[in-house]
Amino acid sequence: MSKIQDAFKNGKAFIPFITAGDHGIATTERYIRTMVKAGADMIEIGIPFSDPTAEGPVIQAASTRALSTGVKIDDIFDMVRRLRTGNDAITIPLVFMTYVNPIYVYGCEKFFAYCEAVNIAGVIVPDMPFEEKGELQHFASKHGVEVVSLIAPTSENRIEMIAKEAEGFVYCVSSLGVTGMRSEIKTDIKSIVDTIRKYTDIPVAVGFGISTPEQAAAMAKVSDGAIVGSAIVKIVAEHGDKADDVLFDYVKAMKAAVAQA
Amino acid sequence: MSEQQRHGYFGEFGGQFMPETLMNAVIELEEAYNTYKNDPEFIRELEDLHRTYTGRPSLLYFAERMTNDLGGAKIYLKREDLNHTGSHKLNNVIGQMLLAKRMGKTRVIAETGAGQHGVATATVAALMGMECEVFMGAEDCERQALNVYRMELLGAKVHPVTSGTSTLKDAVSEAMREWTNRMADTHYVLGSVMGAHPFPLIVRDFQSIISREAREQILAVEGKLPTAVMACVGGGSNAIGMFYNFIPDENVKLIGCEAAGRGIDTEEHAATMAKGTVGIFHGMKSYFCQDEDGQIAPVYSISAGLDYPGIGPEHAHLRDSGRAEYVPVTDDEAVDAFEYLSRLEGIIPAIESAHAVAHARKIAPTMSKDDIIIICLSGRGDKDVAAMAKYRGVDIHE
């Protein structure tokens, strides 16, 4: 069983996100292998949701494209099972990023049992704050799946409470607003990360708005890693099922930038 | 029985499923509400505005011709359509905007379906000198073009929402996204008893004035409580307003009328109670129209205001605890009722409210002359005239 913290053992981590089923589940499977080869330390696999309220236009569109192919949660578990088996099985930690409703309606017990079976190390659920994590936590813990906590620039007095119970890694949200590329990240990330570190020893990675190697390096410099979603999804949107080379080069450059931070 | 057991919950429904970025904003809202809801100055200002601006108390009207025509229960209409801006929405908006001002907010955002809540928010923003932006599904902008112009006339900026199904749920999602982006100076004036705690509680409290007045009014004219009160339900704000003060009166039936569109046996309806399952979306655990993977279903109703795939958590609790019942009403039935009330009583109801009128037409004849029904006439139907004409195959230019 690979654990989230394994992602942070090779220096600063680069964590790409991809929407499962965007241009077909077989394409997603191939792109995950591509990103692993290019040096990704952990991959966030997005289970598409019809109404992703925390996403900007790029990931919203990817979710819509994915769902229009008819992809089901069962197909995504099957894909992860394929990635985890055979001679070319991938071994880095994989996490799911989705909304609380698909997990709840699919069935929490079934969902986390399958996560355990296919070796999903954790889940990131942006519409499930600290106060409501009881909805999933019991089922996740029972199956050894870590529930990742998010901390935002507005968390302030909530950081201590959240960080003390955080597991896997802390997802530090870089900016206000939804996911999407930003030309500039103005938040004082260092001070937020420093506060988080007063209360927990687990790694802290920064996401939302990061697209360039310079941004990723700047974020990784003050934390343990950088998470990139919209920029990856945009490459897939632009290149469809022929994004392999572009994706490989992008992830390689981002990992290099993060590693030097 | 509607008292909350767990913090922010009605029975097992409700909660606060918001992104971490907004958690301090909803906590701040709850604290402000708890501070001001019993503040005499706040209450006085709210009551003054309702008396001098909204036009409250709203009338309780005995619909004598309708009563005689149906030949059963006596029918009263609670005339929320007579409020300034033409619907019950102003009850909540004035309350939330007074709260927003006290919280130091200078800008408000809102979602709207039929445009009623958007118009109410734009109106009070003009009154209070606040900046206002309204998110409205692109399809609804088309269905309710008059209300779009009305909001702009009042100084609001209207954002047509093209994501998802381009209707009310997408407008709510987009308003939430905008709030995540900017909350320091901005209050999100949610228009229904839905979303994350404390919204379902705040909106219900501000709307409960409907049943507070209606209960006093019916006791004054009839000397007894009604047999049933009924209202249309989308998110459920006018319904909870109509129900709330009758909840302890266990002999008063509470009936919510939801949009069955082209029928609950088709794919084209918004009948959350009849066809939905429990889920967690838009900040709350409640019933939703959705598939087995929790993907929210595209819903349909002729009424933009009822075209929502979920329902407020307190309604879910009232239903599951057996206190209230919820019935589906089709487009056809609602349009018939729209015309019926217009011709019989000289009152053109909103197509939303016509869903409740339609159900009253079904049950009143089965009841005795000693029975009393109060229908919440939540809005007026001027906005729907063009759409109703189109439904009947008449093409008129707005």
Account of the 3D structure:
The complex is a heterodimer of chains A (261) and B (398). By secondary structure, chain A is α/β, with parallel strands linked by helices. Chain A has one domain: Aldolase class I (TIM Barrel), CATH 3.20.20. Chain A is 44% helix and 14% strand. Chain A has helices at 25-37, 57-68, 73-83, 100-106, 108-118, 134-142, 159-165, 189-199, 213-221, 230-239, 244-259, and strands spanning 13-19, 43-46, 94-97, 122-124, 146-151, 170-173, 204-207, 225-228. Chain A has an 8-stranded parallel β-barrel with strand order 1-2-3-4-5-6-7-8, surrounded by 8 helices. In chain A, strand 4 (122-124), helix 6 and strand 5 (146-151) form a beta-alpha-beta unit. The longest helix of chain A is centred in the last third of the chain and has 16 residues, at 244-259. The two termini of chain A are 29 Å apart. The mean pLDDT of chain A is 97. Chain B has 398 residues and is of the alpha/beta class. Chain B has 2 domains: 10-49 and 89-203, 3-Layer(aba) Sandwich (Rossmann fold), CATH 3.40.50.1100; 55-86 and 208-391, 3-Layer(aba) Sandwich (Rossmann fold). In chain B, 43% of the residues lie in helices and 18% in strands. Chain B has 16 helices and 14 strands. Chain B has helices at 20-36, 40-54, 64-70, 89-102, 116-128, 138-143, 145-153, 168-181, 199-207, 209-222, 237-243, 272-275, 313-320, 331-345, 351-363, 385-391; strands spanning 9-10, 13-14, 60-62, 74-79, 107-112, 131-137, 157-161, 186-188, 228-233, 253-261, 277-281, 284-288, 324-330, 372-377. Chain B has a 6-stranded mixed beta sheet with strand order 3-4-14-9-10-13, sandwiched between helices. Chain B has a 4-stranded parallel beta sheet with strand order 7-6-5-8, with helices on both faces. In chain B, helix 11 (237-243) links the parallel strand 9 (228-233) and strand 10. The longest helix of chain B has 17 residues, at 20-36. Chain B is globular and about 55 Å long. Chain B starts with 8 loop residues before the first strand and ends in a 7-residue tail after the last helix. The mean pLDDT of chain B is 96. The chains are: A alpha/beta (261), B alpha/beta (398).
